[in-house]
Amino acid sequence: MSLAEDINPEDLPEAYSMPIEEMDPSDGRLFMHQKHWAYFERMRKEDPVHLSENEEFGRFWNITKFKDIMAVDTNHQVFSSEPSIVIADPPEDFTLPMFIAMDQPKHDVQRKIVAPTAAPANLIVLEPLIRERVCNILDSLPIGEEFNWVEKVSIELTTQMLATLFDFPFEDRHLLPYWSDVATTTDEEGSNNYMEEEARKAVLWECYEYFVKLWNERQGQGDNPKMDFISLLANNPETKNMNDDPLEYLGNLLLLIVGGNDTTRNSISGGVLALNQNPKEYDKLRADPSVIPNMVSEIIRWQTPLAHMRRIAKEDIELGGKQIKKGDKVVMWYISGNRDETEIDRANEFLIDREKARHHIAFGFGIHRCMGNRVAEMQLKILWEEIVKRFDFVEVVGEPERLQSNFVMGFLQLPVVLHPKK
Question: Residue 385 has what pLDDT?
Answer without folding.
Answer: 98
